[in-house]
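User: Sequence in, structure out. Go.
Assistant: Echoing your sequence, followed by the structure tokens.
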Amino acid sequence: MAAHAVDPTLETFENDVWWITLIKLLGVFVLLLLMTLFTINYERKVVARMAVRPGPNQVGPKGWLQSLTDGLKLPFKEEIIPRTADKVVYFIAPVISATVAFTAFAVIPFGGVVNMFGHQTALQLTDVPVSVLVLLACSSMAVYGVVLAGWASGSTYPLLGGLRSSAQMISYEVAMGLSIVAVFMTAGTMSTSQIVAAQADGNPVNIGGIELTAPGWYAVQLLPSFLIYMIAAVGETNRAPFDLPEAESELVGGFHTEYSSFKFALFFLAEYINMITVSAFCTTLFLGGWRAPWPITAVWEGANAGYFGLIWFFLKVFALLFGFIWLRATLPRMRYDQFMRFGWKVLIPVNLVWILFLAYFKVAQSGAFSTEVRWISTGVIAFAVLALAWGWPTTKKPKRLSLQEEVAQRPPGSFPVPPMDLQVPPSPRARRAVAERAPATVGGESESKEV
């Protein structure tokens, strides 16, 4: 007889004995360290493959121990502390970043209820009715580590990098939080284990009197929220193409410019753990968590039983990590003002409109509206969306006029236009084009006349 998956409840965590909780705590800590070492090497190898170059291949089997040697090397490097640094805050900042990165993983479910040394326990450290808010709180606390590191160094470059990074993280945290609201509305809970359980089977939807079964994953049901979350997650973790606080051409190295040795290793560790955390969070909220995808569950009844949930969970996490690496290898870095404008003027308004639409759909589905009111309101919403899309301001640049057209549009007696050889930028191709043409008269003076 095939085994079935057992979903944990809040009482499951209350019944854990202390040494089971200690084992799970140690397991999460070791797992994150190993995942960080793997992700660093994974990123190097994937980017190397995309750039058609070897990548790390000397240390260990096919270079897979390269990140381990780097991790062992960093604590033994010379530590240089600036004289102008605030010693206490300078030390606390990397500790805050690393601590909140580890803490966020406490409420991530890795699997269902399993038998561990004769005790029934869930593959999750703990769970509370507001677990998602715990994750968002840890994400908010990470801003303190960044801004304090930039200020405590006593240097201009880290201060600018810290301010940039904190503004970026706060801005995109708003978009990330709004994208999760749709999940709350659909699942009816903020508990991470219950959100995974809500995606186990398709939810029935009544459309025009026809009973349909929507796909279980919220990435399909709530596609706009899923896409906004993914974009916001890249901005929240300061990863390319949104790694603007660490732009080498502008701010040297960002908020951790003055850090070295073990303190720099803590920032490095926190960045990669945050990548793993947002990927695991996305897996939990939108990709069914530790449950196997539909084609596998259709042919294998016991796919989610026991420790098999770990396999499906980490396969989804690795796929999302590959997305992070793919973006870094393919997209150029954005300009800072473009990036912030995109977050505040595109992601957040779209998110708010989507939440209002989803709220209307939930109310209409509950039967609070009559059939006539439902059809009329749906038509009004569709008309408003089309009108908004039709009247949306475009960013199309106006047609650039030639020099002769600009001169013709000037009123009589205006100041003469500078010669073509003084236009910016004075490219060699433009100079050759001017030399080949006959001199034109501009404002009574010859265009080819030396100024």
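User: And one key feature?
Assistant: The longest strand covers residues 113-116.
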